[in-house]
Amino acid sequence: MSGAKEVTVSTAEEVDADARRERLVAYGLLAFTMVVWGGSFVAARALLAPADPAQTSLSPSVLAALRFGIAGALFIPPLLARWVSQRHTGKNPLRLSFGDVWRLVVLGQISIALYFWLQYMGVQLTNAGVAAILVVGLIPIMTVLAARSRLGEPFRMIHIAGLALGLTGVVVVTLQRESGLEFTISRDFALGAVFLVSNAVLFALYSTLARGLRERFDPLTLTAGMTVFGALGLVAVATVLGGWSDVASLTAGQWTWVIYLALICSVLAYFCYNRALRVIEAGRAATWVYIEPPVAIIFGALLLGEAIGIAGIAGGLIIALAVWIVSRGK
User: Fold this and answer.
1) CA distances (Å), 156 to each of 49, 207, 224, 330, in order?
2) How far apart are CA 324 and CA 139, in angstroms?
3) Which terminus of the chain has a smaller tally of CB atoms within 10 A, N or C?
4) H, E, C per residue of the chain
């Protein structure tokens, strides 16, 4: 009997060790993802407003179309491979109804086409650090607002206070200038901030609309479908607005940024994030998103020579406090 107990204890210890090891790997993947996504603001800024005047600057619509056109093409092979595998194993391949396709089209325009078009216009008019603060900082607040409104739940005073504080943080960030500590409002900078706030609103809308589809489709199908349809929308917009000829003038270094955005940020980081969510609770993983702004600020300073003043730091802290208030006030 004692031998059986020893075997049981040993097995339990091995299971615990495996679980700890798996969580450690998941946290590593999560950290990698957030650092990569934080760097995406810097990559976008380098392509939209390069420091070297001799380099070509892409328009927001062309950059977004280029990024997700490549990413959408990269999603097609794994989808085809899975479809072929299902056919050979006798499983019924996933079939999408007309309504499902229409929902993916709409979500693709909201979460990819409009979302990144507005984000890149905001990055172009502000800078990488400010863009990360506004987008990442406001997304949780806007998502709570949209979700509660959609579900018809009443707001508490603490929620209203948190949202008001978050808007205060946005105003403080908007008051800063890129080059120093002067509290004056630039029209372009303020317009960029409006685009970035709208960015957070779109993400909140997407999060509520996609809730039902997440239960019916696996992450690969859902993300690949939205990416492909969103890319088609972006290509159409970029074609109407023009600017595709600038792509031919990109330097090798700029193409490195493009590949980083398309392959690393839009494909690899996505798979790492979803792999981490198999082990780490979604609510706990969501808090890691706040790694992105400091990463964007550090990378922006090191790689692009950007500076962020007291107003940006203070506004970021105010937004973080507002998010904490809203998330705690359940």
Assistant:
1) 42, 22, 38, 9
2) 13
3) N
4) CHHHHHHHHHHHHHHHHHHHHHHHHHHHHHHHHHHHHHHHHHHHHHHHCCCCCCCCCCCHHHHHHHHHHHHHHHHHHHHHHHHHHHHHCCCCCCCCCHHHHHHHHHHHHHHHHHHHHHHHHHHHHCCHHHHHHHHHHHHHHHHHHHHHHHHCCCCCHHHHHHHHHHHHHHHHHHCCECCECCCCCCHHHHHHHHHHHHHHHHHHHHHHHCHHHHHHCCHHHHHHHHHHHHHHHHHHHHHHHCCHHHHHHCCHHHHHHHHHHHHHHHHHHHHHHHHHHCCCCHHHHHHHHHHHHHHHHHHHHHHHCCCCCHHHHHHHHHHHHHHHHHHHCC
| Crossing angle of helices 252-259 and 60-88, rounded to 10° | 50
Question: How much is the pLDDT for 271?
Answer: 75
Angstrom distance (rounded) from CA 178 to CA 283: 34
Tokens 């990024």 belong to residue: 67
Contacts of 152 (CB under 8 A, 6+ apart): none
User: Two tokens at 211?
Assistant: 């809730």
Cα dist from 245 to 48, 53, 235, 238, 242, whole Å:
15, 17, 13, 11, 8
What band does 178 get if pLDDT is binned at 50, 70 and 90? very low
Tokens 């407003």 belong to 49
User: pTM for the complete prediction?
Assistant: 0.73
Query: What pLDDT digit, counting tens, does each position of 14-28 carry?
Result: 557 777 888 888 888
Q: Average pLDDT, stretch 58-83? A: 89
Is 44 within 8 Å of 234 (Cβ atoms)?
A: no
Among 10-14, 67-71, 326-330, the range of highest mean pLDDT: 67-71
pLDDT class of 236 with cuts at 50, 70, 90: very high
Q: What is the pLDDT of residues 114-132, one digit of tens each?
A: 988 998 988 888 877 677 7
